[in-house]
Amino acid sequence: MRCLSYWATIALQLFCHLGPATAVAVPRQKNYTGGNGGIIAPKVFIISMFEPESEAWKTSMVESGTGNLNDSKIDMPGLSMLYPQVLCTADHSVCQLTAGEGEINAAASAMALVLSDKFNLTQTYFAVGGIAGVNPKYSTLGGVALSRYVIQVTLQYELDAREKPDNFSTGYFAYGTEGPSEYPASIYGTEVFEVNDALRDAAYGFAQKAELSDSPAVAEYRAKYREAGAEYAAATELPTVVKCDTATSDVYYTGTLLSEAFEAVSQVWTNGTGEYCMSAQEDNAVLEVLVRGAIQGLVDFSRVLVIRTGSDFDRPPPNVTAYQHLLEDQNGFSTAVANLGKAGAEIVRGILQGWEQTFQTGIKPTNYIGDIFGSLGGQPDFGPGSQANGTGYAAAPVQRRAAQMRTRGYRGASVVRRRI
C-alpha cells in the first residue's frame, strides 16, 4: 500500500501541475520571483548524457568566461541516481543536466526536469547532445555536427542477417512493411523529430568561432581513410563544424553494412532530406519529452538545438574488419568531448550576448518543427502528414484525437505486437 499511495500522490501532483492541455503558441508561465528561493528561468539549459561530456562543458564555460556551472547545485527528484543535481551558473542564466546514457535514462531525467516546479523553461534554449559515432562521408573524429533531424533508426523489425531473405540489403525493415527501404506503416510517433533550422544556422555561426582541438593520434587514425578516396574525404580532414543529422539507437552498432542501412533509413524516413552523420543513443528520447512539454506550454520547441561530436567512426577504414574497428582505440574520445565543450560554449556565449536583441523573443522557424504526428501544429515535411489536421494536439479536444489518428490511417503499435 505504501507503493500504491506513493504513486497515487505522484499522479495527483502531475494532474495538478499539468492541468488541461493549452495552446502550444501560448506557453503557460510560472511566476519567477527571483532570489535564492525563486523559480529559476535559465536562458540556456545544457543536457549532457554522462560525466565526461558535462565536465567538458564546465571547463569550456569557465575558459570562455561564460560562467561556472559549479556555482549553484540544485537537488531535484527524478534525476539519475548517478547525477542527482542540476548545475547552474551563479546568476542561473545557464544550467546543466546530466541525464544518464541511453534512451530510458535520458527520457526519465528530461521528464523530471520539464515537470519540475523549480524551473520556468518557457524561454529556455536547450542544447541537447554529446559525443557520437561519426559517418566518414560527412565529418571526422572531433568534428562537430548540428542536426535538423534526429531519426530513431532501430525502431524497426530485425532479422538476424544470417536469416534474412537473399534480396534484402539488411535485416532491418520498418514496422508494418515487408522489406527494407519502405516508410513505416505502423507509427509510434518518435521515429523522426525536426528542430528549428533558422536557430541551427545561428548556432552554426557561433560554433564556427571555436578553436577546435586535434591531436597527432587522431590524425593518425583518420589518415587510414585516405585509401577510400573521395567518398571518405571528410574523414581525413581536420575537425570542423558541419550541419547534418543524428541517428538514435540504444544499440551501439558499427560496420559498413549497418551504417549504410541506417543511412538509407534516415533518407527514407525524412523523405530524402536527412543526411545521417552522427550516431547516438539519447536524442529522440529527449526530444519526445520536449514535444510533450511544449504541448503543455512548459517549453518552447523552437528553442531546441542538437549538438554531437565524433568520438569514433561508425564504419571501418579499408582493410580493417568491423570487429577490429570496434575494439581498436581510435583516439577520438578526448578530442570529441573537448570540442563539444568548445563549440557549445561559443553557442552559449552567442545566445547570452544576443539575448535582448534576438534570443529573448526567439528565432522564428522557417521550417516545420516537431514530431512525425504533427503534435505541435503544422504539416510535417516527412511521414504521412499531420495526425491532428495541422492544428496540433494541444488545440484538439482529447476525445477527438484517437478518431483523428484512425481517420488519417494510423494503426498503432498493436499491429506490430500482433505480428511479432
TrEMBL record:
Name the UniProt key words of this record, in alphabetical order: Signal
Origin species, per record, is: Sordaria macrospora (strain ATCC MYA-333 / DSM 997 / K(L3346) / K-hell)
Q: Please give the superkingdom of this protein's source.
A: Eukaryota
Signal peptide start and end residues: 1-23
The record's listing under Pfam families reads: NUP (PF06516)
Q: Please provide one cellular component term from the Gene Ontology annotations of this protein.
A: endoplasmic reticulum
How is this protein named in the record? WGS project CABT00000000 data, contig 2.109
A GO BP entry is: transmembrane transport
InterPro entries xref list: Nucleoside_phosphorylase_sf, Pur_nuclsid_perm
According to the UniProt entry, its GO molecular function terms are: catalytic activity
